Each structure stands twice: as C-alpha cells, then as structure tokens.
Amino acid sequence: MSTRRFHDDMADQPPLGGSQPPVPAPPHYPADGDSQSDPARRTAPPRGRSSRSTAHMPRTLAQVMNEANDMVVRGDLTEYVPLSTGFDPLDGMIGGGLRKTELVLLGGAQGIGKTIATLQIARNIAMRSGQFAFYLSYEHTETHLMNRLLCLESINPPEVDLKQGIRLKDLYDIIIAERAKSTLRGSEAGGSLQSILRENAKTAMALARMNRYADRLILVKASPAVTTLRAIREMTARLCDATGGNVTVFVDYLQKIAIHPERATDENEKVTIVVEGLKDIALALGVPVWSIVAADREGLKANRLHLFHLRGSSALDYECDIALIMNNKYHILSKEHVAFNPYQARQYRDWVVFTIEKNRAGRAMQDMEFQLHAPYFAFDPRGQRVQQQLIDDKIIES
C-alpha cells in the first residue's frame, strides 16, 4: 500500500483532537523517471500488523517465538536491523542506529541545532528504500522545512560541498527574481516553483536529491492546541498500515504536544504524560520515536547542559531508551584548554558535542562532536570522539 492510500484514508476520517486537519500529502516534484514506475518507491505489503493488534494482549512465549520465526522466514528482519542515523560515530555508540519500540530524546539549548540534526536524520532514514520518516513540527511549517532541506541538499551531506551551498536568503532571492522575470515576460507557466528550482543551476541538483525521498518524508505542521498524543498515535498507526510498519516518528518538540482530554496540574506532570505516551506509541506500534526536548530555565543558565536540566527530567530519564544532550564545544571546553590555545578554541564555536547520557544499548556518558554548518541547516555527519578536556572535570579518551 502506498502513502497515497494513507492520505486518502486520513481524508475520510473525522478530525483528530478537535480540529486537527488530516495529514497533508508530502510535496512531490516530478523528476526524470516518475516515482510510480520505480520499484524502490513502491511500498511492500503491510507487515507486522498482527503484533501491533495484539500489543496489549497476553501471549505465550511459544506464540511470540512462532511470530518471530514467521517474520524471519518471510525475510522480514526489521526487528533485528537498526536504522542508521547517518551520523558516525553516533550509530556505533547506540548499537548501530535507531531500533523499533525505542524512544530517543534529544535535548539542548535554544539555537544549538536540535531541529537541524533531527530533520537531517529524518532525511537520512527517508533516503533508504522502503523506509518512511514522519516528522511533526510544532515550530515550523512544512514549506519552511522543505526550504531548509533544499539548503541542506545544496551541500549534499556527507559530501558537504560548501562551494555549491545555497543559504535560505539565496533561495528566496532566486525564487523572487525568477518569478519577477516570468511576470515581465508574461509567462505564468515558467514562473512555478517547480520550474524555477528545476531550471536554476544553483538549485537543480538540490531539487533532484530531494526528489529521491520526497514521497517517503511526511511532514505535519502540528498545533500545540489540538495535535494530541491520540492524534499522533492514530496518524502513526495509519502510516504503519500504509507502509508495512516501516516508519520512524520525529517530534519537534515534546513539551508542545497537547494532552487533551487529560489535564495536568503542572508542567512536570504534563511532560510525564507526554513522554509515557510517546514510549507507548513506540512499543505498541513497533516504531522508533525520536523527540526533541526543551531545557528548563536553570538548564539554560548552566555552563553545560545535562539530562537533569530538561523540563520534566525525572520522567524523561525513566521512560527513554537513549538520551542525547547537545552542547556548543567552545562553551564546554575546560578553562585550561582555552587559556593554552585561545585561537584554536575559537575554531570550536561551530562544533557541537553530542553526549549520550543514557544508553540502554551500550555505554553512556560518551561524547562525540560534529561540525555545524548553520547557514545550510546541516551537520557534517562525519564526526569523531571528543579529544579535549571538557568542563565537569571530564576527560574523554581517544
């Protein structure tokens, strides 16, 4: 079943959570070789539906073993093969990538690059044939996310060719200028967004790269008033049915999720309800869930952000399988290192340290660093372990 059927099904359903609109179809720009004729773009028959329908029903170990055996016999190894995030060495430190039923939380200060990293990982997963990424954004519209992806694709991670890079302002200028030229020529057909991007030398390759996964990256502008946990669960369940369960859910961000009709006495209780709900979605539907988490006020004042600085930290720590915390490398270098080589230290302003503070798949408290190219909304996914001494009297070995 294709995602087209999913969108048709959503249109037939009553609004979720009050006035929540149906999931919009992902943008599609025709490229050479229509995706309808590409086997890689067609979805396999639904798999794993029986396990989702009996997720909360008691089963004997023999039944579980028989079901797992049937999956392997028919070649379905999705339970055993993790989904690579495309970020190295992150994948190696969390057991190869994202796994079904797991909840991953990503925290960090405002502007550190949480959305950039999350959208890039969603893109990396959607690039894999047969895999779908479901991205819910409470902060940005679908069009803005599309524009970010065009900037990202212009430098083509992991190649990261900055000479070919397009900044957001560059993209806007190209669209406005080309549209103005078309108007002066009296040609409406040549002034469409698709034709502008396809015919401009600076955007043509970025568009072609984005077209490779445009049908498998599903975007939703979520509402903090009506996009509830129930809405997210029902949309994800329909996507699972439409894609054979090959969906990874991304939420940007956790504290914005509405919990109606439940009521919380304070924010900590709300965060507890939300994180428990996201974990239940991961378990019941058999999908990986990745969610951004905001820091509390004390965390924003801290020299180095930790898991306990996130809003509702106790529930977050208990429910998640993996917790990643992002910090600007320059800000968390030890004073000794900065004083010893201040020029080199300033070069670390564009580097972000990802710390695994919880890891059920392996060792925790491991630091790795990735260079951020903020104007292009992209990280260089070829990272490395941190070699320098960081604050908190913490030394990372090579």
Description:
The chain is built from 16 helices and twelve strands. With 398 residues, the protein is of the alpha/beta class. Strands 1, 2, 3, 4, 5, 6, 7, 8, 9 and 10 form a ten-stranded mixed beta sheet that branches. Strands 11-12 form a two-stranded antiparallel sheet. A hairpin with a 4-residue loop joins strand 8 (366-373) and strand 9 (378-379). The longest helix has 19 residues, at 267-285.
List the helices and strands and how they pair.
Blueprint: H1 3-12, H2 49-53, H3 61-73, H4 90-93, E1 103-108, H5 114-126, E2 132-137, H6 142-155, H7 168-185, H8 193-199, H9 204-211, E3 217-221, H10 229-243, E4 247-252, H11 267-285, E5 289-293, H12 297-301, H13 313-319, E6 322-328, H14 329-332, H15 335-340, H16 342-346, E7 351-359, E8 366-373, E9 378-379, E10 384-385, E11 389-390, E12 394-395
Parallel strand pairs: 1-5, 1-6, 2-3, 2-4, 4-5
Antiparallel strand pairs: 6-7, 7-8, 8-9, 8-10, 11-12
Helix pairs in contact: 1-10, 6-9, 10-11, 11-13
